[in-house]
Design a protein that fits this description.
The protein is of the alpha/beta class and 293 residues long. It has 2 domains: 4-55, Spermidine Synthase, Chain: A, domain 2; 59-292, 3-Layer(aba) Sandwich (Rossmann fold), CATH 3.40.50. 34% of the residues lie in helices and 28% in strands. It is built from 10 helices and 13 strands. Strands 9-8-7-10-11-13-12 form a 7-stranded mixed beta sheet, sandwiched between helices. Strands 3-4-5-6 form a 4-stranded antiparallel beta sheet, with helices on one face. Strands 1-2 form a two-stranded antiparallel sheet. It is globular and about 55 Å long. It starts with a strand and ends with a helix.
């Protein structure tokens, strides 16, 4: 197919258009419509069910934050579970940490993995070949319900709550994740763009707070995720994880000796500062949860 313009309309009355010069892949997998476009502005771009998932030019904003925030806050993470993330970008960032001994990636759609490795090799950058990595092609909700493994960090790098990802936003899934993590573990997930997806991030907050002792959000603005800042939901039973000082994070960052293009210790700390409209909405959810107790 020759070039043109890809138009994404995730939200009613609002969208974005991205020029492409070639369509590298366009197929219907067993779970979703998948396309990979070559674009002048963003490099190669992965699209699932008409929604941009990642692009070569700015993928590091998201993948670095969703991986390094929980790992460096934890301080001694050895085992990490990634649900989704078949493009390999989150796995790449997780495995930068020398302390990580084992990283399991559970992806429901094998075609996302296969086609990303073929057409977007820079995202995984060899992570799937790392001996510490294990790829499991399975439903993430079923995996956490059945496994007897334990993890220090769980990262949910999924699409929005539609289609194959719907079960990854349900109460049983979060309860099962809590069982895998234990007292000091951390769960982090993408939770939508607060400006347009208020119901999504508030629903995630309410459900996570019903399972974990400490919940919150970090924010990151990714150019290709239209609508402003993206919310990364955070949950743990150890409140200190979210309160690490810049000095502590900086020492851990130096010790890990990893290279990043977006993440740094200052951004780590500031990412948890939320705008007033989000604070007010979260306060309302907390009051409602207390009322229902």
């Amino acid at each position: 197919m020759t070039g043109g313009w890809f138009t994404e309309t995730v939200y009613p009355g609002y969208g974005q258009s991205i020029e492409f010069v070639d369509t590298l892949v366009q197929e219907k997998t067993s779970y979703q419509d998948l396309a990979i476009y070559q674009t002048p502005a963003l490099g190669r771009m992965l699209v699932l069910d008409g929604i941009v998932q990642t692009a070569e030019a700015d993928e590091f904003y998201y993948h670095e934050m969703i991986a390094h925030l929980p790992i460096l806050a934890h301080g001694d993470a050895r085992r990490v579970l990634i649900i989704g993330g078949g493009d390999g970008g989150t796995l790449r960032e997780v495995l930068k940490h020398p302390r990580i001994e084992h990283a399991t990636l559970v992806e429901i759609d094998s075609r996302v993995v296969d086609l990303s490795r073929r057409h977007l090799p820079g995202l995984s950058a060899g992570a799937f070949e790392d001996p510490r990595a294990r790829l499991v092609i399975a439903d993430g909700a079923e995996f956490v319900a059945r496994t007897d493994e334990r993890f220090d960090v769980v990262i949910i790098d999924s699409t929005d709550p539609v289609g194959p990802s719907l079960a990854l936003f349900a109460d049983p899934f979060y309860r099962n994740c809590a069982q895998l993590l234990g007292q000091h573990g951390i769960l982090m997930r993408q939770a939508g763009v607060p400006f347009f997806q208020k119901e999504e991030y508030l629903a995630a907050y309410g459900k996570l707070c019903g399972v974990f002792g400490d919940c919150g959000f970090a924010l990151v603005a990714v150019p290709t995720y239209c609508g402003g800042q993206m919310a990364l939901a955070w949950a743990s039973n150890d409140a200190e994880n979210r309160q690490r000082s810049a000095a502590v994070i900086a020492a851990r960052f130096r010790g890990a000796a990893i290279e990043t293009r977006y993440y740094n210790p200052e951004i780590h700390v500031s990412a948890f500062a939320l705008p007033a409209f989000m604070k007010a909405a979260l306060d309302e959810v907390r009051r409602e949860n207390l009322r229902l107790m």
